[in-house]
Amino acid sequence: MTYVVTDNCIMCKYTDCVEVCPVDCFYEGENTLVIHPDECIDCGVCEPECPADAIRPDTEPDMEQWVEFNRKYSEQWPVITQKKDPLPTAEEMDGAEGKLEKYFSEAPGEGD
């Protein structure tokens, strides 16, 4: 099992999760985060830290696409281990529909 970031992180990018991760497996894009599924140790400490409820275990239905999404971008983006301010759009975008299609950016974030 692994944990993955889903589309509810897009345009929110809360980083509470990265501070509690014991193995530094979060990677930062311009407007979202991902978890490297091969580095995640399945401890689960990140899941309750996410204000947007965007971190899910891969054992839930239909998570295969998110495992591959997280793997792809974690191999392209820089690691993030320190908490940063969320995006200015975080509160209004939390729970918005269709964020992957409408707002996702493949550009990397700054990392640490």
TrEMBL record:
The keyword Transport applies. Transmembrane segments: none annotated. It comes from the Bacteria. The keyword Transport applies. InterPro entries: 4Fe4S_Fe-S-bd (IPR017896), 4Fe4S_Fe_S_CS (IPR017900), 7Fe_ferredoxin (IPR000813), Fd_C (IPR022569), FdxA (IPR054829), RnfB_subfamily (IPR050294). It comes from Paracoccus onubensis. Its cofactor is [3Fe-4S] cluster; [4Fe-4S] cluster. GO terms for molecular function: 3 iron, 4 sulfur cluster binding; 4 iron, 4 sulfur cluster binding; electron transfer activity; metal ion binding. Keywords: 3Fe-4S, 4Fe-4S, Electron transport, Iron, Iron-sulfur, Metal-binding, Repeat, Transport. This is Ferredoxin. Ferredoxins are iron-sulfur proteins that transfer electrons in a wide variety of metabolic reactions. The lineage of its organism: Bacteria, Pseudomonadati, Pseudomonadota, Alphaproteobacteria, Rhodobacterales.
